[in-house]
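User: Hi! I'm working on a homework problem where we have to compare a predicted structure to a textbook description. Could you give me the structure for the chain below?
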Amino acid sequence: MKKIIITLMLLLTTMTAIQAQEIYTEVKKMAQEKVDNPNNAPIVRNINRFKVDALNYMAMKMREEMPDSSATFLDDMALALHNFINDYSQSLVISSQQPAAFQTKVIKAYIDASYSNPLFHDPDQDTALVYFLDGNSLTRFSLDTDWRRAVLAAKEAMKQIQ
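Assistant: Happy to help. Predicted structure tokens:
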């Protein structure tokens, strides 16, 4: 009886671990499909290229600096990144009818939310800030971001500018 319970516990743990990384995998897969589809507008491909790069960066840094972290942590970050980018895109569309000064405030709110909430405090700023420093990028965000905190910071900033 004890062996059956232990076996069931191990099976459930394995299944949870497999399911736990499904969000990360699915977000990355959807973003990569949009990047690879030549029929998508360049803006859509560029935004999704950022998602793919951010997810790859996050997974790499977690393996290096947080090898004992759970797969659910990676999933939580992937979902938060997805939500952050969706909120940002939606805010850009909504603010497109506003004056340029307001649009600039919206963009700055999201950039600041990303930059001000580092996850790894990566000393390799050339890599972590590659999008942030690119003045032509629509996604001028830091790859080294705690996306859960960034979502909250961006929502708070948006409340203040509206």
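For your comparison, note the following. Residues 1-18 have pLDDT under 50 and may be disordered. The longest helix spans residues 71-95. Good luck with the assignment!
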